[in-house]
Amino acid sequence: MLHRRVLQFLIIYTLGLTLLLVVKYLLNLSDYVIPSPESLINTSQQVFSRYFGDVMDTLLVAIIGQVVSICLAVLVGVLGRQTTWFGSFIKVAAYNVQAYPIVAIAPIIFILLGDGFMSRLLIAAMICYFPLLLSILGIMSEPVVDVEHFYRITGRIRWQLEIKIRAFENIHKLTTVVSGSATLAMAGTIVAEFMAANAGIGYSIRIALYQSDLSRIIVALFLIGISLSVYQGLLEFSGSWVKKTWASA
Amino acid sequence: MLLACRHITLKYAGSEKYVLKNFGFEIDGPGFHALFGPSGVGKTSLARILIGSISDYDGEIVKRRIQSILYSYNMERLPGWSNVGTHLDRITPSAKRDLKDEMVNAFGLASFCSQRFSQLSLGQKNRINLIRYLVQDFQVLIMDESLANVDEITREKILLTIKDLFPDRCFFYISHNVLEVSKFCEHIVVIRDANKQPQAHLIKGQNFSNGHPLDKNAYEKTMLEIMNAS
Lengths: 249, 230
What we know:
The complex is a heterodimer of chains A (about 250) and B (about 230).
Chain A: H1 2-27, H2 37-80, H3 85-98, H4 106-113, H5 117-141, H6 145-153, H7 159-169, H8 171-195, H9 201-210, H10 214-247
Chain B: E1 3-10, E2 20-27, E3 31-36, H1 43-51, E4 58-63, E5 69-73, H2 84-91, H3 97-106, H4 122-134, E6 140-144, H5 152-165, E7 170-175, H6 178-184, E8 187-191, E9 200-204, H7 216-229
Parallel strand pairs in B: 3-7, 3-8, 5-6, 6-7
Antiparallel strand pairs in B: 1-2, 1-4, 8-9
């Protein structure tokens, strides 16, 4: 699971890099436009440890933001699963709000909260929150009729049991959604850093962009990709471990 | 009279076709009865009306001395987080533990209680599912093809056990097996297409149980009556 994720990333990264180099040599572009392999190796030796620290900083913010989003999405998803007016209200509100591009609100957050940790965290959480919420709402609102019928007709159904049944039956979907939302949280954090923050890999990419230094950006992309692959692989592993443990309890 | 359905008419929203039209029958008391008819004539819809999950119908349901109607069907599943034995223990009231054990043995499931529901065969799944309903408090239990995928010998044993253990309860056994309903059921409500009136015919079955011999001629006559009525 973990190694597959990393391998997939390495294949895609290598293909992308090869394509760039093919374009470079076909069109005879200078190292300034697309760096040579030697330039890439030199740059990676120079910036690797600093960028690695930046990526870890970004990943930490993304993970905290994702955890906050998951907690909030589960809470709202559980409340919104009901067929009451309140549940319907939450569902309609969630569908409408998620249609708005959250990243457009980011400047307001930077103006109000400054360019520190909180702004990055909030933007990361907001960007991965709505897709998570919609998925969790969908899973929690969908009755597992074949399992729930007995509890319902014998008057044994409780909200905790209902959630347990739906979560158990959809554990694979939930794992996929949580794993997928890691990408969104990371993207949200990088976007926030790219816009106005003063730390993280997004901030370093912004500086590299201003210097038109594509080799630094390519090194940063490698570190972002590999870190995210490892994190998603660990999430998927945790999901399958939870399912296995739960199913054999 | 225990249960009566009078002039029940049902048409699902958005559909022009009647599922039940001026449908009615009356059951006097407890016993093992059948709802019989081809697929799509409204047996499951009638069951859902009786348990109250369909309320958008015309007509009247009269219940006397009935506090609880349960409905079990053959596609139900037990939660996968525990084995079937643990699940049965959890949902069985303490006063009915012995009854549960007796049925587990009689239904031939004693050696499967340590397994997960997903590991059982279809017939075993249906038997386990039926047991968890039988250990609940009910006056009426609707068994919607609850013994599908169970072999005939085991099915006969199960039906006779149910009749022995629950003589004071009312069962509606939904089945497509004319031999079975003719033999084991006290009354057979034969349900026909809603275009045919009357939509229901009540036919007396052989009500075969332990200690009562089966009159083969009467049994054949019942089967013919059912076939003619359907």
